[in-house]
Structure formats: C-alpha cells, structure tokens
Amino acid sequence: MAEQPGGVGRRIAYYRSAMRPRMTQQQLADAACVALGTIRKIERGERGVTDATLEVIAEALGVDPARLLADRTPTVTRVHEALPGLSAAIAAYDMPDDGPVRPLSDLRHAVDEAVSWRLAAQYTPIVRELPDLLAELARAYHAAPDHERAEVASLLVNAYRSADAVAYKFGARDLSARLIELMRWAVPEADDALLSASVAYVRTETFFAARAHTVGLRALQQALDAAPAPVDAPEIAVRGALHMRAAVIAGRARDGASADTHLAEARALADRVPEDVYYGTAFGPDSVRAHEVSVAVSLGGDHVSRALDVAEEWKPPTDLPAERRSGFYIELARAQLWCGLSDDAFESLKVARHIAPQHTREHPWVREDTAKLRRLKRADSETLTNFAEWCSAT
User: Fold this and answer.
1) Tens of pLDDT along 312-352?
2) Neighbours of 256 (CB within 10 A)
3) Which of 16, 81, 109, 238 is the most buried if burial means most Cβ atoms within 10 Å?
C-alpha cells in the first residue's frame, strides 16, 4: 500500500470523530468486526491496513475506502464498477454457460442471504456474489425437473430483485428495467400469486424513474385487483404493501384523494399483522407510519407539515430494515428543509447515513438537499462540506 499507515489512521480517526453522534473506537471496532486493539494501532499509525480491513472500516464509517487513502474520492465506487458484471450475468439468462449447480437447499440459503443484504442496504456483497449466483440459478432453472422448477423460478425472482435494488439505487436505470422484466418473465413459472403481486410492487420503480406516476398508479390498481383475498398474514401483508406503494405514487401524481385512500387501506391491513418482512417487503404498522412521511413529501405543499408531525411522535424502530429506516430520515430531511429547518434536515441526513451509508450516499435527494444546505449556510461548515464531498453533492 502506497499510503503510509499513519495517514490512513488519521483519516479513520477524523471520520470516526465527525460522525454524529460521535463514534467511539469501540463502536467502530464492533461495527467493522475488527478488534479494538487493531483500531487503536491503526489510528496511532503503528500498523498498516490490509485492503479487506480498510473496506470493512470504510463501510462502518459510511465512506468510500478511497476517502481513507486520499483527500479526494472518485465518484465511481466499487459498486458502480461491479454493475457490468450483473449485466453480463443476466445477458445469458436463457442460455447459461455450463457449470456446477448446488443442491436446492444451498441455493435457497444463498438467495435468502442476498435478500437479507438487500434489506440491510449492504450492496457491496450483492454485486460481489450475485453475478455467479444468477448464472447458477439460470442453469438450475433450465435443468430443473418439473417438481422443482417452480421453486427455482421463485428463487430467480428473489435474486433478480436483490440485484435490481443495487441497479436502481445506483442509477443504472436500464439495467434495473431489464431485471424487472426478467422478474416478470420468471414469476409465471413460480405459480405464486403473492410473488406475482410483489413483482408488481417492484415494477413501480420503472414508473417512478419515468415520472409516469398516473400510469404507475393504474398498474398497481390492476395488481391489487389480481391479488388474492387478504385472509392470512402473507396475503394481508402483500396487499397492504401494494396499497403503501400506491399511496406514494398517487402522492407523486398529486392525487391527494387516492393517496389518502390507499394509505388508509394500508393502515387497516397493517393492524391485522405483526411487523415483518413478507415476500421480500417489510410491512406492518411501523412500515405504514414511515410511508405517511413518504406520502406527505410526495404531495408537497401544505401536506409537508404532516411529515414533521409524524416524526415528532414516532421514530422507526431498529428492527425495521435499514433501507426503510434510512429512507424515512432522507424523506424527513426533505420535509424539514422545505419547512426552513436546515439544521434539523442535516441531522436527519446524518442519521440516514449512519443507518445505511450506501443507500444514503446514492440517493438523489441526499445530493440535491445537501447541495441546497451548503448554499443556505452563511458560513461554511467543515462537517457539511465533508458530507457533501462524501455524497458528491454539487
């Protein structure tokens, strides 16, 4: 490593101290799964840092590893660089290369792990592991006996969804659209109406990206019409998730009446099930509360104060998936900024970063709002400047 260890250690100590709330060495050690003594020696410049250790420390601090090696970081992260690998993996979905295929139980475990990474907003392991897994699942699907094909198709859908989470959040909209179309291709073979409804939920990303909100709302209504009756918990939760999504996209369409109707339906369904992850989507009373903020921000105008009211009386609990919790604070920050509460907005952005660094860094609202905060500040704040550089706000 060309950089002297002392320089790396000083930067680690700086970013750790700049966290709000301030991160102790013990907290950094715990978050990075590195021994406390190792952290202390690195910060004092008494030992070097391997690439693997640097990466886990950077992840815990919410910075790109290059930030710890130099004063400026490239805008292209390791995740961005790995996206072509995902693209290549799905290019041959219908004619995969020959290769090994693990037992179905092992494939099931691998997909479950990818789903857990998605919910935790841990995108680096997704782009590292999913290309090979998608190729293996494609081989498994085409070679599967009739009695296993439905389950392999379900695994493919869930793996595609984890890959799509990275593509969509890192701005690879064409790749995201292709992955969603592959979900729609595979889901009929799974013969699972609830999984089909979950794919309709994900498909809404394409309407958000195209700002085709009215069409997206119509597509979700069709999905609701086709979804199974809400009898058992999974059926209730999947239908409720569609209503949550419909409420947000109705808000983007400035259709306040539809947004309120769908939010009320989601709230009523959430009262019937415990908070949990159903078919890959978190749903329950807390998820609906988080979506109240989303809807208020989507509607804008006089509705924004509703987001502040929700945040005044409720905060997302730590057992909600990290992606959802960070999204709540990103949307709350926008509401606070619109209401003239710039300091509160910056605090919310820092909380979002602490919860899910990669999700926060790649969110376009974070860049837009951070840039606006810098313009509003009369005196330049070093912490705000560092945050702006971290998320590439201009």
Assistant:
1) 999 999 999 999 999 999 999 999 999 999 999 999 999 99
2) 16
3) 238
List the one residue out of 153, 156, 165 whose CA is nearest residue 135.
Answer: 156
Dihedral angle sign, alpha carbons of residues 104, 112, 161, 73: negative
Cβ contact 386:193 at 8 Å: no
Q: Which of 36, 90, 93 is nearest to 60 (CA)?
A: 36
What percent of the chain lies above the pLDDT cut of 70?
95
Residue type, 37: G
Q: What is the end-to-end Cα distance of the chain in Å, rounded?
A: 31
Beta strands in 233-353 (DSSP E): 276-278, 281-283
AA letter at 73: T
* 1-74, CATH topology level: 434 Repressor (Amino-terminal Domain) (1.10.260)
Q: Where are the beta strands (DSSP E) in the chain?
A: 276-278, 281-283
Per-domain residue ranges of the chain:
1-74, 75-191
